[in-house]
Model the fold of this input.
Amino acid sequence: MTRVLYPGSFDPVHIGHVEIVDTAATLFDEVVVATVRNPQKGTGLFALDARMDMLSESFAHLPNVTITMFSSLVVDLARDLECDFIVKGLRAVSDFENELQMAQMNLEISGVHTMFIPSASKYSFLASSLIREVAKFGGDVSSMVPSPVAKRLEELQGS
Ligand code: ADP
Done:
């Protein structure tokens, strides 16, 4: 049985992430999606528990996907949860440089390997930071996020 860990900020989860989880859930027996507050990405829009709720609602149809949050090193979580690999999505070559360095560091400190899943090119422009920015100014991002996220973004826009 192969269990993989898919970590990220997911603030909020969008359909680029959904595509990676759908693929991982087909390739591997179990997928753990873990959300973290990334200090490099500022305070964020949604609290961690709201991100978890949106992830749970978005992946409720996939029985082999579970959701968690963490504040430790990704590799410590991977080991605690007995995950065989970390999975990361790749949007473009620009992601690769940073992700490769992180994967090599994680391998060096823990022996845990990272597997990359490339995004379909039609989703490669998507980033949570852009979704937040467009939504903040009232833009319609409903086609780019799962419906539980669209609902919460509308609530924020209305408040
Ligand atoms: P974002 O960059 O959208 O804020 P995260 O930090 O939550 O996303 O990213 C979590 C993981 O999802 C990373 O491996 C990232 O490369 C990947 N990812 C983000 N956006 C996409 C996308 N549009 N297609 C495929 N993978 C993506």
